[in-house]
Design goal:
The chain is an alpha+beta fold and 405 residues long. It folds into three domains: 115 residues, Orthogonal Bundle (Butyryl-Coa Dehydrogenase, subunit A, domain 1); 110 residues, Butyryl-CoA Dehydrogenase, subunit A, domain 2, CATH 2.40.110; 157 residues, Butyryl-CoA Dehydrogenase, subunit A, domain 3. It is built from 13 helices and ten strands. A hairpin with an 8-residue loop joins strand 4 and strand 5. Helix 5 packs antiparallel against helix 6 and helix 9 packs antiparallel against helix 10. The structure holds flavin-adenine dinucleotide.
Length: 405
């Protein structure tokens, strides 16, 4: 499934092809029909919808960026962004969507990009089919934004590697079959000593905590991971030894490019709901939408949604052309996540007390949206990243990193 992004001179064609539109419509109808059962209860109890995960697999969504020879859709970035917006519109379970993003962008995609033929054959078909779930284990109790201050260590034992350390905030960890784990050599601490490993869930020495309780994305399980003398064969290394920084940087840029495409759908749904409510809810003898304070709030929601879509679609087009996207991905991540949060706040305000009640299913989108300013690199770190690319000095990215780039 490929679009027609023409190589150009700085301008991008933001139209979708009929094929891309048709695929998006199919995804939207599927999501509306299949993915919203008992959501209030599952959100309250923190239950991951395994059967809906399998339905997503059957619809091809778990293999969007994967070549057809490994069971995927081979979809380009524009098709993917449009399909994910449709998925986000149809599926109100933002937790399920977040697990899907963690799987696709932080697990599947780096295997497509850096995996050996053996790793691709071993992991990708099962991941596309919904039989194997991926997670990404970089963050540690002492290293979040400063990701390369990680202390999880890797040493050699004969032909094998041995991992020791602990990871936190690992999305999908409690349900994952394989984790992408980053570790650093004791003797080569710093960027050049970091490597990436694919570690199977049942490897002796790897333990996963119970799901961590969190305010939003409650249907997406997250856990801590411990590695105690966890011995893995050399074939688990993803990419060359010492290439962990390149694997992580590429993976995060890719994740930032797509992880908020479903939020476009959520924002579109919230907007439609607010318009409907503002037209039908009467106070002081008039629909509340006739009060300028309400209508202008809704117009601002629409403006932020349109700008968010333009940013993500431009980013997708640049990705399809193979052009650099570090700055565009950072800008889109900051803008869309902040628009997502504002959209959640506005939707509650427009719905008044009903917006605040869990049964009405408006407040959940705000709880789910808040994490978007933190995961995949916080808004502050994205602004730093953009500033650095604009030639402004940002303390976050010091001499050491620039040397190794
Ligand atoms: C829902 C969710 C899912 C996640 N999933 C995963 C996952 O699957 N795998 C994984 O490895 N991690 C995951 N994370 C962790 C995430 O990557 C980190 O939370 C994030 O990178 C921030 O790190 P921290 O929480 O340690 O905050 P800190 O780095 O301690 O930051 C705290 C605050 O200080 C600010 N700050 C820090 N440094 C600077 C600076 N130089 N300049 C300006 N401000 C700064 C931050 O922006 C933030 O506001 C997830 C997090 C969340 C919330």
């Amino acid at each position: 499934m490929r679009g027609t992004a023409a190589p150009g001179s700085g301008t991008v064609d933001l139209e979708l092809t009929p094929e891309q539109r048709e695929f998006s419509e199919t995804v939207e109808k599927f999501a509306l029909r299949e993915l919203n059962d008992d959501l209030v209860g599952r959100d309250r109890d923190g239950v991951f919808a395994e059967k809906n995960w399998r339905k997503c697999a059957a619809t091809g969504l778990l293999g969007l960026p994967v070549p057809a020879e490994y069971g995927g859709q081979d979809a380009d970035a524009t098709t993917t962004t449009a399909a994910l917006e449709a998925l986000g519109y149809g599926c109100r379970d933002n937790g399920l969507l977040f697990s899907l993003h963690a799987h696709l962008w932080a697990g599947v995609s780096p295997i497509v990009r850096f995996g050996s033929a053996g790793q691709k054959e071993r992991y990708l078909p099962a991941m596309c089919a919904g039989e194997s779930i991926a997670g990404h284990a970089m963050s540690e109790p002492g290293s979040g934004s400063d990701a390369f201050a990680l202390t999880t260590s890797v040493t050699r034992r004969g032909g094998n590697y041995v991992l020791n350390g602990s990871k936190t905030f690992v999305s999908n960890a409690p349900i994952a079959d394989v984790l992408l784990v980053f570790a650093v050599e004791e003797r080569r601490r710093g960027f050049a000593g970091v490597s990436a490993f694919l570690v199977d869930r049942d490897t002796p020495g790897l333990t996963v905590s119970k799901p961590l309780s969190k305010m939003g994305l409650r249907t997406s399980p997250m856990g801590d991971v411990r590695l105690d003398d966890c011995e893995i064969p050399a074939a688990c290394l993803l990419g060359p030894e010492g290439a962990g920084m390149a694997v992580f940087t590429w993976t995060m840029e890719r994740e930032r490019s797509f992880i908020l495409a479903t939020a476009l759908g959520t924002m579109r749904r919230d907007l439609e709901r607010c318009v409907e409510h503002a037209r039908t809810r009467h106070q002081f003898g008039q629909p509340i939408g006739s009060f300028q304070a309400v209508s202008h709030r809704i117009v601002d929601m629409r403006m932020r949604l349109d700008v968010s879509r333009l940013l993500l679609r431009r980013l997708a087009r640049l990705t399809d052309r193979g052009e650099p996207t570090a700055v565009e991905a950072a800008l889109a991540k900051v803008y869309v996540s902040e628009a997502f949060v504002q959209s959640g706040l506005d939707a509650i305000q427009i719905h008044g007390g009903y917006g605040y009640s869990t049964e009405y299913e408006v407040e959940r989108d705000l709880r789910d949206a808040l994490a978007s300013r933190i995961y995949s690199g916080t808004s502050e770190i994205q602004r730093d990243l953009a500033a650095r690319h604009m030639g402004l000095s940002a303390r976050t990215f010091g001499k050491e990193q620039r040397k190794s780039e």
